[in-house]
């Protein structure tokens, strides 16, 4: 697998990636908040949780479809899962930088931020798939659903997503504190040049 580099502006994620990221973060945040409400206070907005959960599944299908079937998506896939020697070296360099108080630069690149986004995407996908399987079991779409196991999986998966979400938001504020606001990534670009190096 090759490593891709983007030669446009530092925040030059493809517009499709920005839109999908915004939809994913919004729906996962809603699911997380409603899940916490149900877990702690017992008042669970089940209808809205299910409705937004179905929207989340659609967003995830669009996200994975874009990653797998578009050129820009396949390049981004290398950033999210840098499972090659060059990518792992970048991850190690970012980790070493953190121990020295240096934040990894944002933007389309292989390294720790991209890998953490990949782990977040994979976590959200697995928990959403478990939720869809449970919903189908409750509604009689299919049988043989291991309800207890899936409920436990979803609870622990939700905890993992919450921890990743807190870390994600925390890094956004930390970057902003150091003068590098990450919300600049949502600026819409009408042109970008992507160079793919083998």
Structure description:
The chain has 198 residues and is mostly helical. It has one domain: Fumarate Reductase Cytochrome B subunit (Up-down Bundle), CATH 1.20.950. The protein is built from 6 helices and 2 strands. The protein has helices spanning 15-40, 46-69, 71-80, 85-99, 112-138, 147-177, and strands at residues 4-6, 194-196. The chain has a two-stranded antiparallel ribbon. Helix 2 (46-69) crosses helix 5. It is globular. It starts with a strand and ends with a strand. Mean pLDDT is 83; it is low at 1-9 and 192-198.
Key words describing this protein structure:
mainly alpha; Fumarate Reductase Cytochrome B subunit; two-stranded antiparallel sheet; single chain; 2 strands; disordered C terminus; 198 residues; 6 helices; 3% strand
Query: Low-confidence runs (pLDDT<50, min 5 residues)?
Result: 1-9, 192-198
Strand order within the widest beta sheet = 1-2
Number of domains: 1
Shape: globular
Overall average residue pLDDT: 83
Strand percent estimate: under 5%
Which CATH first-tier class would you pick?
Mainly Alpha
Please outline the major beta sheet: 2 strands, antiparallel
Count of runs of 4 or more consecutive helical residues: 6
Q: Give the end-to-end Cα distance, rounded to a whole number of Å.
A: 8 Å
CATH topology: the name is: Fumarate Reductase Cytochrome B subunit
CATH architecture grouping: Up-down Bundle
Helix content: 55-70%
Number of strands: 2
